[in-house]
Amino acid sequence: MSTNNQPLAFFYDRHATPSTGILQVRLEACREYAAELRYEVAGEWIDRGDDALSDDRRPQFDAMLDALAGASVDRTVLCLINGWDRLSRDPGRCGHFRYRIHMAGGWTETTTGEDDRPGSTRPRALTAFPFAVVPEAAS
């Protein structure tokens, strides 16, 4: 088991346009936030182009989720995003992506200090659609 008690942050973003200026601003905000809170950075995963516009096909999100799940075995892990809309602009789909992060063993946190960590007393955005584990219907 790891002796490092600092959370391991997995940066995620999506960007549809060829111009990357605003993407770099968002990633720099993640870097600064992680440094301020002393989070160790696992890496950056960015879905680009059509993948960034889809809520169904996110290969970089899936790769990040696999890495996050693997690391969650012996580390505290989180997905760090610049804002909730980096997952999806649709509140329901945003909740779906957050649920997947939760099921992989992590939580989601924004560079403005909002998170969905279980038991957290930090603020949550009103636009961060809540997720719930819904039991499967009996057959």
Summarize the helices and strands and which ones pair or pack.
Elements: E1 8-15, H1 21-36, E2 40-48, H2 50-53, H3 59-71, E3 77-81, H4 91-103, E4 106-110
Parallel strand pairs: 1-2, 1-3, 3-4
The gist of it:
This protein is α/β, with parallel strands linked by helices.
Observed structural traits:
single chain, 139 residues, alpha/beta, Rossmann fold, 4 helices, 4 strands, globular
Protein architecture, described:
With 139 residues, the chain is an alpha/beta fold. It is 33% helix and 19% strand. It has a single domain, classed as 3-Layer(aba) Sandwich (Rossmann fold). It has four helices and four strands. Strands 2-1-3-4 form a four-stranded parallel sheet, with helices on both faces. Strand 3, helix 4 (91-103) and strand 4 form a beta-alpha-beta unit. The protein is globular and about 40 Å long. The protein starts with 7 loop residues before the first strand and ends in a 29-residue tail after the last strand.
The radius of gyration over CA amounts to 15 Å
Mean pLDDT: 88
Largest sheet: 4 strands, parallel
* CATH domain class name: Alpha Beta
State the oligomer. Answer: single chain
